[in-house]
Amino acid sequence: MSDYPPTGLPASIKALPEWIQLGCGDAEYNCAEKEATFIAGNMPAKLPDLSNHTSFFADTMRANPELFEKLKSKTTKLGVNIGHCIKTGVDNKGHPMIKTVGAVAGDEESYELFKEFFDPVISARHNGYAPDAKHPTDMNPANLSTTPIDPTGKYVLTTRCRTGRSVRGTRFPPCSSFEERRELERVIVKALLNLEGDLKGDYFPLHGMTEEKEESLRKNGNLFQEPDSTLLLSSGCGRHWPDARGIYHNEAENFFVWVNEEDQMRIVSMQKGASVVEIFKRFAAATEGIQKVLKQEGYDFMHNEHLGWVLTCPSNLGTGLRAGAMVQVPKFSARSDFKQVLAKMGLQARGTAGVDSASTGGTWDISNADRLGKSETQLVNIFIEGVAQIIRWEQALEAGTDIEAEVAKAALPAKF
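The line above is the sequence of creatine kinase; the predicted structure tokens follow.
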């Protein structure tokens, strides 16, 4: 047996538990130990019992019991069936307190061919987004708010914007072939190496990366590794690992692109402090530069007027954008209704180690909550105005001022 994909596994993967190895080869993930045995290539006549599943997928299927049988004979032009899209939802029951989507798309056409399934999932996940709604796109930095987020420089540690992009005419991780992923890497890296000015940098493939480089990226949280959750393994994200995957970054290491991780491109622009406008400008220039080269190669980004930028997981449709900052607000975040107030303002808070983690010393990762239905600049403006307001409240609490009347009126910024 070979020691590299597509026919074998490299030593780094063979050192991992078998349940992870099973998701990093050429075949669909099939692991009895993790009860991940639903196979899109050999779907059962009826959907397995979903009575103990917690996800938007399970809700939709329970509400429409005939849907699976209605859709299972359909296949997109690139060979994707409904099984590829729902495998991760069938294999993973989910957590009663944390509702995941439980589905991914296999390609761009999946969202259209299986719309009877995806439309209700998208609507439930994105605040009632309608099947005929139009998603606005606006990457123009001139439309960003000029409100200073943190005039004193005391509260915001770092700020980042991240999004994803996909290449039209190709398949997503659940269905991508070995050759297809390599072609994606070729065109994406060609586009990245064409970037100029403060975006100019280099590409580091995961396979063959030096230990020093790996350690340097890991230390700063900029390295992605093989999937170690059944959610991702059942979504096909581990197949042929680590082939055709890598990380691009500019010389200043404040602009990164992850290639062929969960999305074909995950684009991140960040820096210390609260300079979100500067970060967004870098981010907008990069996506424009990448798209230009893709078009020269006969490709383009996936985008349509209903779903915006089309990505693997329905949770990231629209803008795919998360504008976030690590913000130190120990007094304001001590409120029992902290997360509820943020939700009214179109924001969400994560702990310092990501989703569902705890805060450290009153430091929270605060970001926009929505992805779909509002443009990029609208979402960044909600973030700017919201975080600026939270910092003003923190300062008021430091000064001993009562803020209850103001907090009671918390809402989305009027002009956005």
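Note on the example: The longest strand covers residues 156-165. The domain at 141-207+242-408 is CATH 3.30.590.10 (Creatine Kinase; Chain A, domain 2).
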